[in-house]
Inverse folding.
């Protein structure tokens, strides 16, 4: 996605994936962010958490210039995903370059996250974003629970020199949250003072006199640093798949509109020339109406009439794509992923077959889902009843949604 194509942005995230992972050891599999966790690489799993979050508008990845082929091999285009930018010699420089790449869109808020933390949860993303306010860095962290020892090493042995109180000690995590223009200014301030070795962005905020507010991190939000961490991540991923019962929901929608004299019908967002039109308060797109109800049903959020009352003059003649887009937004606000939508049009005329693929494409665009997740079918009513007599068009729709927990 080019900068001039980027949508209006409230919340963006910079994913730092430019490191070499020297503590991971050598491997033909490349840097740690491209090594496998189950069927995906670390970076893929990290990106998925933000691409599927309804709270994130734009994802900016920072990669090493030697990793472009690996990135293109593993990472697929997504509507939220900007073109990757190349990082610098340090993590701090890489973040700064990622922030600079967002200057064209100037998001209101920005999260900064390590690619090597693939188990970031929707709740943690939400909690950090909710805590952002002016002059504040938001830092997820967990309290230190083990005894802490200070030590030094000689030629052959490491010796404990002190036991450190763990009171008020915390382990910092990412994503860390900021007002975009403030963390951008903080990075510029640090660079102007020749400070280039900060290991996290909250420390950069502190250096420029911002306050740091802690929110509760999660122990699952591990950072993969060593080969042992990667083994642990794979075991954790396997266990999650075994124990996690997916929250899969299905909703059904039904709508019918009568046909009256006209010049075209609008079905599933496609205008079809015809000697009649569908009668209704809006544009009477019976296909999108039924599909909207199916999505609302999947999340238990009423029906199209409760969100867009036919008594409200605001919706007279309105295009129904906005109803469907609203339902999709509500699904994603519940951390839902639309996995499949099926529409069956029931009418004697007009013929649906020649327009089926265009209908699928329209629904895919409105809902921002892959076209192979959308089915549009048609059948007649065998001349039985009012539909069979050509007096109207009915639609049955089904939508499947997976709620992320």
């Amino acid at each position: 996605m080019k900068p001039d194509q980027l949508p209006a942005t409230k919340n963006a995230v910079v994913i730092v994936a430019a490191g070499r992972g020297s503590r991971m050891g050598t491997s033909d599999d490349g840097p740690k962010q491209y090594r496998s966790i189950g069927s995906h690489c670390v970076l893929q799993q990290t990106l998925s958490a933000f691409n599927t979050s309804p709270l994130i508008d734009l994802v900016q990845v920072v990669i090493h210039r030697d990793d472009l082929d690996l990135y293109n091999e593993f990472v697929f285009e997504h509507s939220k995903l900007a073109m990757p930018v190349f990082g610098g010699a340090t993590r701090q420089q890489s973040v700064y370059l990622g922030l600079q790449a967002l200057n064209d869109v100037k998001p209101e808020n920005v999260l900064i996250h390590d690619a090597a933390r693939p188990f970031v949860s929707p709740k943690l993303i939400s909690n950090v974003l909710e805590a952002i306010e002016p002059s504040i860095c938001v830092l997820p962290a967990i309290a230190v629970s083990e005894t802490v020892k200070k030590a030094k090493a000689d030629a052959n042995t490491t010796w404990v020199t002190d036991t450190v109180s763990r009171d008020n000690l915390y382990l910092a995590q990412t994503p860390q949250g900021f007002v975009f223009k403030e963390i951008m200014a903080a990075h510029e301030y640090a660079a102007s003072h020749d400070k280039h070795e900060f290991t996290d962005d909250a420390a950069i905020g502190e250096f420029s006199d911002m306050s740091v507010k802690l929110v509760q991190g999660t122990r699952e939000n591990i950072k993969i640093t060593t080969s042992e961490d990667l083994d642990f991540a794979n075991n954790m991923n396997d266990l999650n798949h075994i124990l996690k019962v997916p929250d899969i929901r299905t909703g059904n929608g039904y709508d019918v509109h009568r046909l009256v004299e006209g010049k075209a019908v609008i079905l599933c967002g496609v205008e079809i020339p015809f000697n009649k039109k569908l009668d209704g308060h809006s544009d009477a797109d019976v296909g999108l109406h039924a599909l909207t109800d199916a999505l609302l049903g999947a999340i238990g959020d009423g029906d199209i009439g409760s969100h867009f009352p036919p008594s409200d003059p605001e919706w007279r003649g309105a295009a129904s794509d906005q109803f469907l887009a609203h339902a999709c937004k509500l699904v994603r606000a519940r951390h839902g992923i639309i996995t499949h939508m099926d529409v069956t049009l029931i009418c004697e005329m007009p013929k649906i077959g020649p327009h089926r693929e265009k209908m699928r494409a329209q629904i895919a665009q409105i809902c921002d889902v892959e076209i192979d997740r959308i089915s549009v079918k048609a059948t007649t009513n065998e001349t039985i009843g009012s539909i069979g007599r050509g007096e109207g068009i009915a639609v049955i729709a089904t939508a499947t949604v997976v709620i992320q927990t």
The domain at 3-243 is CATH 3.90.550.10 (Spore Coat Polysaccharide Biosynthesis Protein SpsA; Chain A).
